Amino acid sequence: MSRAVNGTVSRRRRKKILKMAKGYRSVRSTAFRKAREAVEHGLSYAYRDRKNRKREFRRLWIARINAAVRAEGMNYSQFMYGLKKADIQLDRKVLSDLAINNQTTFKSLTETARAQLT
Question: With a cut of 50, which residues of the chain have pLDDT below it?
Fold first, then answer.
């Protein structure tokens, strides 16, 4: 009886890794061991940065809202607390977009928040 060496499975696994390493430079795209290392690093960076991307966008939205609110004579925390008391449930992405593209609506929101604080 012949010895089974798992050839097709191993070849498929290697081909999958080499396919993922397409576009990498030098040995990292051709040699399996180096390609596997590069792909594993790339996948771990991709996982990490999918989480970081959400954080970075939130920071950007908060910075934009804060800049727009300070122009109206308030600060970010007072503005958000005023909106919460007024039961206005807009997320930071929408507020940031309003601050940039629709200043009149944003100004009315700041007036509403200010009225709730007093």
Answer: none
Evaluate whether 95 touches 65 at the Cβ level (below 8 Å): yes
User: With b meaning 16 or more CB within 10 Å and e meaning fewer, what string describes 35-51?
Assistant: bbebbeeeeeeeeeeee
Ordered by start, the domain boundaries in the chain are 7-117
Q: Could you tell me if 110 and 67 are in contact, meaning their C-beta atoms sit under 8 angstroms apart?
A: no
Rounded alpha-carbon distances, angstroms, from residue 40 to 4, 21, 74, 97, 102: 29, 10, 47, 37, 44
Q: Which CATH class for the 7-117 domain? A: mainly alpha
Q: Which amino acid is at 63?
A: A
What is this structure's pTM?
Answer: 0.79
